[in-house]
Amino acid sequence: MRKYLIFNIALFTQFLPEIFSYSNDFFLLIYFIYLIVTKKILNKLIVSPLILILFLVTIKIIFSHNFPLFKQYFSDYRPFLVFGILYYTTYEIDSISYRNKIFYFLIIIILLSIPNLIGMISQPYYSSILKYYYRYVIGGFENSDNTNIAQISSLNGRFSSIFGQPATSGFFFFITTILSFRLLFFNLTNTKVQIIFLIIILALSIFNGLVTKSAFYQFGFLPLLLIYSYLRFKFAKIIYIFFFIFLSIFSLFILRSIFLEDLLLFFEYLTSGRYSENGNIIPLMKTVKPENFLFGFFYIDPNTKAAGDSSLWMKFLQGGLVYLFFYFYHLKKNLHRLYIIDTKYKLFYISIFFTMFLGEIGFTVFSQPKATFISFILIKMFIRNV
Asked: Phi/psi at 233 (nearest 5 deg)?
């Protein structure tokens, strides 16, 4: 009962405004430590990634006082804090009845839909609601006092619910769309009431995903389906291999200039221009030297936008290829231990994991505090039903 209370408190804090930067992460850290202390054990599968991340980045900070990304490494704690909380509250989550889980899911989606519905009716009112929700300022933006990315995006008709930016909102509703779809069409034990609830959840998930206009939501389903079918069906592996060979030959020798140019333009669209000459990432790429590949940078120009909105690049700058390898190795290992029961769940988890990994190329997928926490809780709650 006590752990279940902590689980609900940790979830509830993610819907609250940020008191100060990283305050939501700070609350999660407190709950995680509390659960470890009350459990009186240290599970190496959960704790070792945190120790590794803390060690690598702390050493970097000690030897480089001018390292501007040190505060960003708090973002890397988020998935593992979620795993820790889920690990110690697994029994309580699994003991909730399926009916109550569906109702829980419905309430969350309805609450998160209200801000977007308000925004569709009145953008100024939506903006005024979120004005003080996030405690940071976007520098260089006109009238930037208490301005956040969600507000700026809303001026272009992109609404992010309570999340800080469209990419975060798009990632979250990407997960809820997948879950509600699978629960609706692949769970044969649903009652009529549950089917109605799931239809509402699916409809609201699609609505919220579309109003974010997030590229991750719009195009994330394609790699998800390709990855899942590749893992699920043997003939798909053969088809994909031949298609990749054909596409390579076709692009290199038949329509080399036209095809590659269109492909690059599409990639730029997916990543919102982050890889263009005037974007955030190309200037960083030009500064990469051979000695940076293994252990990352010891100095980055403070005037350069950190990692260009790509959490994959952020990890590379923090600790190089060594850091990237161990980070994703531990991430995959923890996901595997928490969610995998048989082949069906394994395919589902791997497909989501690699889709999120692809999203890191141009989006901060694993660095979303609220979205990561709530999404992983929903996945854990329903993993036995999908």
From this structure: -120, 130
Angle at 159 between CA 202 and CA 17, to 5 degrees: 100
E strand or H helix that includes residue 222: helix 221-232
Nearest Cα neighbor of 50 from 17, 5, 84, 10 is 84
Contact 317, 297 (CB under 8 A): yes
Burial of 91 per CB tally in 10 Å (0-12, 13-18, 19+): exposed
Reported residue count of the chain is: 386
Per run of 10 residues, the mean pLDDT along the chain (length 386 residues) is: 68 80 78 76 62 69 60 73 79 83 94 93 83 58 60 86 88 93 90 95 96 88 82 76 69 60 71 72 70 69 60 79 83 72 70 83 76 87 79
Long-range contacts of 117-123 (CB under 8 A, 24+ apart): 119/154, 119/159, 119/211, 120/159, 120/211, 123/154, 123/155, 123/157
**Structure confidence at residue 142 (pLDDT):** 47
Q: At what angle do helices 192-212 and 98-121 cross, to 10 degrees?
A: 40
- Give pTM, 2 decimals: 0.84
Beta carbons of 331 and 84 less than 8 angstroms apart:
no
d(CA 151, CA 126): 8
Instruction: Specify the pLDDT at position 178.
Output: 92
Task: Provide CB contacts within 8 A for 178, sequence distance 6+.
Answer: 221, 224, 352
Distance CA 89, CA 6 (A): 9
Residue in the block written with tokens 């940790």: 10
Question: 142: which DSSP letter?
Answer: T
* DSSP assigned state of 17: P
Q: Where are the domains of the chain?
A: 2-234+301-385
Q: Tokens in use for 290?
A: 């051979």
* Residue 344, C-beta contacts closer than 8 angstroms, at least 6 positions apart: none
